Amino acid sequence: MKLIDYINETGISKTLLAKRAGIGTPTLYRLLNGKEVSLQILKKISVATKGKCTVQDMMPASLKALLDPPRAQKALKSHPLDITA
Predict the structure, then answer these.
(1) How far apart are CA 62 and CA 30, in angstroms?
(2) Are 46 and 58 within 8 A, CB to CB?
(3) Which pLDDT value is given to residue 80?
(4) Is the C or the N end of the chain the one with fewer CB within 10 Å?
(5) Buried/exposed 3-36: b ≥16 CB within 10 Å, e otherwise
(6) Residue 79: is its pLDDT beyond 90?
(7) Are 65 and 71 in contact (CB under 8 A)?
(8) Where are the alpha helices (DSSP H) in 1-85?
(9) Who wins on pLDDT, 71 or 38?
(10) For the ranges 37-41, 47-51, 79-83, which has the lowest average pLDDT?
(11) pLDDT of residue 60
């Protein structure tokens, strides 16, 4: 589940979710605005949502591609620093 969907469906405030995850509210907003955060932060949010939002759900598409070998090759080839050429 996408994090924003979790927030909307549960009605939890962003401040309360950040507090339950043990992170700062600005960090949560950074994630919601598409910025990268650490894997540790994603794990904390996943625990705070009782697994409704998994780490993979919150990962940027570029990292998700690395978990799927066929997509990983495509992602690497489209990267500006193409190391597969």
Answers:
(1) 17
(2) yes
(3) 54
(4) C
(5) beebbeeeeeeeeebbeebebeeebbeebeeeee
(6) no
(7) yes
(8) 3-10, 14-21, 25-32, 39-48, 55-58, 61-67, 69-78
(9) 38
(10) 79-83
(11) 81
Other beta carbons within 10 angstroms of residue 62's beta carbon come to 13
Question: Which residue carries 């949502």 as its tokens?
Answer: 49
What is the CATH number assigned to the segment(s) 3-58?
1.10.260
Place of tokens 């193409």: 82
Q: Name the pTM for this structure.
A: 0.75
CB atoms within 10 A of CB 44: 19
- Give the start-to-end residue ranges of the domains of the chain: 3-58
Decide if 64 contacts 74 (C-beta within 8 A).
no
